[in-house]
Amino acid sequence: MRGHSHPNMTGNSSSAKLDNATLALFQDVNTSIAISVIYVLVTAINLVGNGLSMWLLLFRTSPKSPSIIFMINLTVTDLALGTALPFQISYQLHGYNWNLGPSMCSFLTMVFYTNMYCSILTMMAIAIDRYLGIVRPMLFRETRERKSIAVVSCLLMWGLVLCVLYPLMTTDLTFDVPELEITTCFDVLKINMLPSVSAWAAFLFSMVFILFLFPFCVTTFCYIRVIRKLASDSKTVQKERAIRLAFIVLLVFTVCFAPNNILLFAHAVLRLFYEKSLYMAYKLSLCFSCLNSCLDPFIYYFASKDFRQKMRQILNLHSLSSADSMKLEHKESLHTEFSKVRTESTATSLITKRPHEES
């Protein structure tokens, strides 16, 4: 399923021979166990973190601003990945032997890719929304209009990703390996999945450049402009949050998405034209690509004030602020009592002076 690309782009027949490096990968038990352990941890953190996030975003956050709509969209894709990963864990632990059929293989592969690229596009949308709100506040001032644009944007993201990944939906992604008596799922692709080398080039270009590199550049530009704007306005607290948000988003891009997409492109080029492979490195990079689903709740925390407040309440992180609030209330109470005493004292003084003044 998740071994994205072509360790061996074979001919049309499922009985084609695989190279020794590919066969060695399928027999590497230690690597399979290590990858499975990472997936188990990611699944647990994903389902807990994004389950809580979804509950807060849907039922405890109001009104539904464009940023909240984008966050809900991102959480849906993360939870879909969290539910799909257990199948990948089982596949790894069974020695790359897929026994759930071609349809399930294609469906779960689509779930993974959709999560990755919808996450990238959604993070770009959140960055654009913050850019418009802080750097260009006069644009799209009407809240209802911005909400409609956010909903339409989410639908367009899904449409774009599904169009690019359409070949994966219409191809049998399983492959029989008689030497090992296993059936792989998306770890070996048939060369006839696409009609020509040009079609493969277009497919890879769309994934790497349109769905990754372009959104990365737009997101980086937006956060740099936001930070510069806040720095010039001297809003220290807001600037610090913007910097943290930008740091987390760019961390997700550079750690989770960049290695995976760069290795995908490099491996495919080497495989198609030079009969070489980077598949082992690419396979390991898949683990890092899953981490984005664990980091997304931190993006929500810094991107939405309402979400941040609700999360602090849920996690009892408001204790310090509550203590500060109690201190402030105590000071205000003392000030009120002091003012009352002064008022009463002044009134008494005026009463005692009045008979003397009348005389």
From TrEMBL:
<feature type="transmembrane region" description="Helical">
    <location>
        <begin position="68"/>
        <end position="87"/>
    </location>
</feature>
<comment type="similarity">
    <text>Belongs to the G-protein coupled receptor 1 family.</text>
</comment>
<feature type="transmembrane region" description="Helical">
    <location>
        <begin position="149"/>
        <end position="169"/>
    </location>
</feature>
<keyword id="KW-0297">G-protein coupled receptor</keyword>
<keyword id="KW-0812">Transmembrane</keyword>
<protein>
    <recommendedName>
        <fullName>G-protein coupled receptors family 1 profile domain-containing protein</fullName>
    </recommendedName>
</protein>
<feature type="disulfide bond">
    <location>
        <begin position="105"/>
        <end position="185"/>
    </location>
</feature>
<feature type="domain" description="G-protein coupled receptors family 1 profile">
    <location>
        <begin position="49"/>
        <end position="300"/>
    </location>
</feature>
<dbReference type="GO" id="GO:0015057">
    <property type="term" value="F:thrombin-activated receptor activity"/>
</dbReference>
<dbReference type="GO" id="GO:0007596">
    <property type="term" value="P:blood coagulation"/>
</dbReference>
<feature type="transmembrane region" description="Helical">
    <location>
        <begin position="33"/>
        <end position="56"/>
    </location>
</feature>
<dbReference type="Pfam" id="PF00001">
    <property type="entry name" value="7tm_1"/>
</dbReference>
<dbReference type="GO" id="GO:0007200">
    <property type="term" value="P:phospholipase C-activating G protein-coupled receptor signaling pathway"/>
</dbReference>
<keyword id="KW-1133">Transmembrane helix</keyword>
<keyword id="KW-0807">Transducer</keyword>
<keyword id="KW-0675">Receptor</keyword>
<dbReference type="InterPro" id="IPR003912">
    <property type="entry name" value="Protea_act_rcpt"/>
</dbReference>
<feature type="transmembrane region" description="Helical">
    <location>
        <begin position="245"/>
        <end position="270"/>
    </location>
</feature>
<dbReference type="InterPro" id="IPR000276">
    <property type="entry name" value="GPCR_Rhodpsn"/>
</dbReference>
<feature type="transmembrane region" description="Helical">
    <location>
        <begin position="282"/>
        <end position="303"/>
    </location>
</feature>
<keyword id="KW-0325">Glycoprotein</keyword>
<keyword id="KW-1003">Cell membrane</keyword>
<dbReference type="GO" id="GO:0005886">
    <property type="term" value="C:plasma membrane"/>
</dbReference>
<keyword id="KW-1015">Disulfide bond</keyword>
<keyword id="KW-0472">Membrane</keyword>
<feature type="transmembrane region" description="Helical">
    <location>
        <begin position="107"/>
        <end position="128"/>
    </location>
</feature>
<dbReference type="GO" id="GO:0035025">
    <property type="term" value="P:positive regulation of Rho protein signal transduction"/>
</dbReference>
<dbReference type="InterPro" id="IPR017452">
    <property type="entry name" value="GPCR_Rhodpsn_7TM"/>
</dbReference>
<feature type="transmembrane region" description="Helical">
    <location>
        <begin position="199"/>
        <end position="224"/>
    </location>
</feature>
